[in-house]
Design a protein that fits this description.
With 575 residues, the chain is an alpha/beta fold. It is built from 18 helices and 17 strands. Helices cover 34% and strands 14% of the residues.
Amino acid sequence: MALVTVTIDGQKIVVEEGTTILDAAQKLGIKIPTLCYLKDINEIGACRICVVEVKGARTFMPACVTKVTEGMEVRTNTPAVIEARKVVLELILANHPMECLTCVRNQNCELQKLAEQFGIKEVRYEGAKREYPIDDSSPAIIRDPRKCVLCQRCIAVCSNIQTVDALTDQKRGFDTLIAPAFNEKLANMECVQCGQCSLVCPTAAIQEVDDTDKVWAALADPKKYVVVQTAPATRVQLGETMGMAPGSIVTGKMVAGLRRLGFDKVFDTDFTADLTIVEEGNELLQRIKSGGVLPMITSCCPGWIKFVEHFYPDLLPHVSTCKSPQQMFGAMAKTYYAQKEGIDPGDIFVVSIMPCTAKKFECQRPEMKSSGYQDVDVALTSRELGRMFKQANISVAEMPEEEYDAPLGISTGAGAIFGASGGVMEAALRTVYEVVTGKELENINFVECRGLTGVKEATVQVGDMPVKIAIAHGLGNARKVLDKVRAGEADYHFIEIMACPGGCIGGGGSPIPTDTEVRLKRIDATYTVDERMVLRKSHDNPAVKALYEEFLEKPLGHKSHELLHTHYTPRGICE
């Protein structure tokens, strides 16, 4: 590709032809402010916060979409440029509800940060406020169009990355609205509740449903025995909500903080991640041996499950019947644990801490009551737990390291890697290999499962059996795999699909911001957690072994099917 020389703020740089002014400036260490821009996802030049002065141009140019040309001279910080950006920002603020002190994104809002950066002390313009009703129809996601800055990031991630197309821009000018088609309620659409829209929204126009009040009420109720489970990804995310560096491992500190909040027991979803692997691995082997439906596709991710229900209902027989670890935990807490401890299951209140908004939808599914009760009562995101800690004046960084409670807090490294894309597959292969061969696996690191490649394919030798696998993260990548399955062109045995880019470490309930760099740091930390564990294979978990001996009897047995397996519902695309 041809190279061009461009001068930005007096500094010359040689870049590839087609590079934007924004990217060229970043290579020089020059920061140009943006609002609507998301690299490789939303590059539309809509907000005009990134305007720059280009010599010879009649108007200011948006840096995020203007490509450099040979000899171009750019100024990014002239008084006129700064004033133009301030005017644009004030016009946005003029239409924005000034609710910062009561907003969930207070002190973590891109619009607020820009106002601070530009020293906005007053808004010189009076603008009409757009009065649209809040859409709280979904169990996972709330839309507040009053706070929307029309950046279209949510549309871009929903359409370009997730290929769900649940949101669109409607009307024109001042009346422009970002919403489901015909301004329908989100709950009535094919929205999969993944929450990626909330993760990229620069304000609080889209946010997770806040269920913290329900948890505070349960903790204050002396009749409730309140237990909490923490998902694998939360231990490498939670620190960020308290100002720690991305990828900080806070497992023991998080456990200590949860005890300080008043939970009766602090358990680990990794325990039922191990349980999931035992059940799912045996289900895969059963399908291979008995001529069952192949390829088998993992069922841990509720966003992916709702996606297949809407867009590929004909492929539901390929989906594992295993519940997700969150739901398996709830079922075990209200049966096995209740029986073991002599507690009335009706008094047990199960809270889960998840990197995911779709888990809120999942725990309310009517299928998830095999314990005789709602298996999981409330699912909180990592962001919500961070807010609870702040309300209780608990600093995660200052907490001591404490251990999870037994027996539902005992886990292995295989359970921990569920948080990263490819982790479920790798954990399953560690177990399937030893079940099939009866031999100890010498190298348990299946590196072909790792990384952020959108679709990963490999053939793994399990004894005499070559097992063909595929791994996809992000629903756009899932489509590529599913289309091959639907067309009969996929000869895989086993497929892992996670709805969110990067897997659960990039889930819709993750700390904000979450970008590629942050995802990679969380993934690295996830594998560090695995490497530090004494036990790294799910079937070696002594608590899982005891669970089968004392209660479940055997994998895929009658009681396992009753409590740990489920079915899914063809939904079709909303017309």
